[in-house]
Write a structure and sequence with these properties.
Order of helices and strands of chain A: HHHEEHEHHEHEEHHEHEHEHEEH
Oligomer: homodimer
Number of strands of chain A: 11
Keywords (chains A, B): DNA-binding, Transcription, Transcription regulation
InterPro entries (chains A, B): ArgP, LTTR, LysR_HTH_N, LysR_subst-bd, WH-like_DNA-bd_sf, WH_DNA-bd_sf
Pfam family, one (chains A, B): LysR_substrate
CATH architecture of the largest domain in chain A: 3-Layer(aba) Sandwich
Protein name (chains A, B): HTH lysR-type domain-containing protein
GO molecular function (chains A, B): DNA binding; DNA-binding transcription factor activity
């Protein structure tokens, strides 16, 4: 059987990114942390950790850590009486999530879970198209993803659909889109894009204009707040979730550039296929919340 | 002399993260993109690009790209008459910035620059302690950093100080800190931390309590909005910038757990040491804005 004390040292180094912080977390010395990882590597005959800054697991190390996190999650559900004293740390749930979900509906949906359980969220923000990689690599126990098919060993369920609208301030609309949304106007006008993985506006324009422009005049603004401000202040156009743009469209602070072509992003909850009651409860809580907070389509793709 | 057409292909692949998007941006075929990079590598006798997903530059490739970006920035300042037609793309300024600056003062400070110039912001969000690495690696032309000493080839100037306060909702304060801020209470109470690079709360507690707890009960919430909500809703305590917590402290929605030990973070603007008038103007605009929006200390460290 694996020596989980050694695995815990590996996990602490990877999770804190530093040997001294790992030592502090485990209440042992820094050299004991190094020794434990070395010992584990010698027993398994494989390098598990790349001693870089920050240290990173090798593929073998990553596979072990996935396993370790699963064990830790299951262990946290044992009755308290079965646990040794030093395992009483609160369960921490590593979850992959897209920035828009976190800024709009996620917190409202999961809040009830925090009222019921002592647990901690460990959120990793990434684009909805890439959160799944975190799950596949075992860095998170569940993720919000835009694909309906879960990776091997995981299960998936439809949560709901976020609807994005292509918005601009009225002054921006007049200056850059005097004859409405055309391909050439979309190429010339400054557009706000969250980051380089963000392909929403491209997809929306492909549907509205037949194809997307080859070049963009793009501001890259990886902050939900600053992104929306740039658009509301009239310096760019861009895709804003319905939940955030609706009141601004209704009071005339924003104009919908493509009212007949909102872009739907279907969100799915993917998680490890474990018999963990906490994971199951998280899933149910998210689904209950999403039913109220997201658009529910009858036949989502996939 | 270097063939900048080949360098542009390398830059496009690294910046878009994909060969097909690079091809689209350069208006050439995907195989022409590959050939150009290959040709550049053959001429220089070095591998410049790691063909991974996404493709990444080697150290040599990174060095070349830094140079390419500097040339591009300077070229954009030539009079329009001197430029060939296909170089007329709007100047894009890659800047490294910490999430809190972006969420609070940065946009208000730089707005005047957008009123004067046609330019685009390409913002990379990272912790204030690590944005400088982006500058050193040449991925940004300037960055907001917490260190006063610029890397080689760069200049630095003090912008101002962001002040953080350790806040909690009144109900949370009553439940977890009934006898005030003590080390053991700080270790037991759930704390909101932006991400694993974020050391603000640790530094603040080291100053208030003599040392920081060895273990945390930490929620990791890498979204400014969700982070603040978690604290305001009474599920965690954590560090909030003065600009955001002041109104909530004043109206009683939050309590300051360490009123006599706010944590100052001194911010500096670092940029390449180039004779670029645009870079100089950005610096001046930021400094003017920071004078109003940030605390100005007379003798900042360093």
């Amino acid at each position: 059987m694996l020596d989980y004390r050694l695995l815990a040292a590996l996990a602490a180094v990877v999770e804190t990114g530093r040997f001294d912080l790992a030592a502090r977390q485990l209440l042992i010395t820094q050299s004991a942390v190094s020794q434990r990882i070395k010992q584990l590597e010698e027993r398994l005959g494989q390098v598990l950790l790349i001693r870089d800054n920050p240290p990173r697991p090798t593929p073998a190390g990553r596979r072990l850590l996935t396993h370790f996190r699963q064990v830790r999650l299951l262990e946290n559900e044992l009755p308290a009486s079965l646990l040794a004293e030093d395992t009483e740390a609160t369960t921490s749930l590593p979850i992959g999530i897209n920035a828009d979900s976190l800024a709009t509906w996620f917190w409202k949906a999961v809040r009830p879970l925090l009222d019921e359980h002592e647990l901690l969220f460990d959120l990793r923000v990434a684009d909805q198209d890439v959160t799944e990689r975190l799950l596949r690599q075992g860095e998170v126990v569940g993720c919000i993803s835009a694909t309906s098919k879960p990776p091997q060993g995981c299960r998936a369920g439809y949560l709901g659909t976020m609807v994005y609208r292509l918005c601009a301030a009225p002054s921006f609309h007049q200056r850059w889109f005097p004859t409405g949304l055309t391909l050439s106007a979309a190429a010339r006008a400054p557009v706000a894009i969250y980051n380089r993985q963000d392909a929403l506006h491209r997809r929306l324009l492909e549907r509205s204009c037949g194809r997307a422009p080859r070049r963009w005049q793009a501001h890259y603004i990886p902050s939900q707040e600053a992104y929306n401000t740039l658009i509301v202040d009239g310096y760019a156009y861009g895709c804003i979730p319905e939940q955030q743009c609706r009141p601004l469209l209704d009071n005339g602070a924003l104009v919908d550039l493509a009212p007949h072509a909102p872009e739907p992003v279907r969100l799915y909850w993917h998680s490890w296929n474990l018999r963990s009651s906490l994971l199951r409860e998280l899933e149910q809580t998210l689904q209950r919340g999403a039913k109220i907070l997201l658009l529910q389509e009858e036949h989502p793709e996939g």
